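Sequence design from tokenized structure. All designs in this work follow the same two-part layout: the structure record, then the generated sequence. An example of the structure record is given first.
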């Protein structure tokens, strides 16, 4: 099995084989918590305008997302697992747009199959991929705002790659150290309103979920995310 690790939307566009779009802080952690909170479906889109258009089509739906880490004006929730964890999403369609993660999904046009990745389901992702026994896997670390390398996304890629090659590496110390590197922004007083410390802890609960989110491109160019138990 050939495993490639690439970054950003450019990496998503070049991705081949089974592709994992990774966004730990916070898009694809949010996706897992949304399904765990009862969401019926998630539609990922790259633009705010498209999110509002989709909202008019789905009566029982909520808008979730961010730009510059903050909740978008007119949206129901920010891109915060803390908000999602306490929301009643039973039977609701979540329409999700973010700066990095969802943008990676819409750009992975050359992949044979696309799933999302985060620390909260990293082992489930590796088990799902292993069950398919592919020749090639591409792990796309989307990075901070889709522009800067992010420690948490590259670490998640390493975790998945390790498990795919039957490794048993203990990454708990490296995950904990994120609090002092890329995760330290969650503990700054000026960010607490939209990126609370609880988001950091929820996003770094390794292997909390035993399912993956499979991405399927829709007729309108947006992405349906489907929960698959592993």
């Amino acid at each position: 099995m050939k495993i490639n690790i690439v970054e950003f939307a450019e990496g998503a566009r070049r991705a081949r084989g089974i592709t994992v779009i990774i966004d730990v802080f916070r898009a694809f952690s949010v996706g897992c918590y949304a399904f765990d909170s009862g969401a019926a479906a998630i539609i990922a889109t790259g633009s705010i305008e498209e999110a509002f258009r989709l909202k008019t089509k789905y009566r029982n739906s909520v808008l979730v997302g961010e730009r510059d880490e903050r909740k978008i004006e007119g949206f129901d929730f920010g891109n915060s697992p803390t908000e999602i964890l306490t929301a009643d999403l039973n039977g609701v369609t979540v329409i999700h747009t973010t700066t990095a993660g969802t943008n990676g999904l819409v750009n992975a046009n050359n992949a044979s199959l696309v799933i999302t990745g985060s620390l909260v389901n990293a082992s489930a992702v590796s088990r799902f991929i292993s069950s398919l026994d592919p020749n090639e896997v591409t792990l796309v670390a989307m990075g901070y705002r889709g522009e800067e390398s992010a420690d948490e996304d590259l670490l998640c890629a390493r975790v998945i790659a390790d498990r795919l090659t039957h490794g048993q590496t203990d990454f708990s110390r490296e995950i904990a150290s994120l609090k002092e590197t890329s995760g330290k922004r969650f503990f700054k007083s000026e960010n607490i309103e939209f990126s609370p410390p609880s988001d950091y802890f929820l996003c770094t609960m390794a292997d909390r979920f035993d399912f993956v989110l499979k991405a399927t491109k829709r007729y309108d160019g947006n992405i349906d995310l489907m929960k698959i138990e592993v």
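The first helix runs from residue 8 to 14. We note this feature because it recurs in several other targets discussed in the main text.
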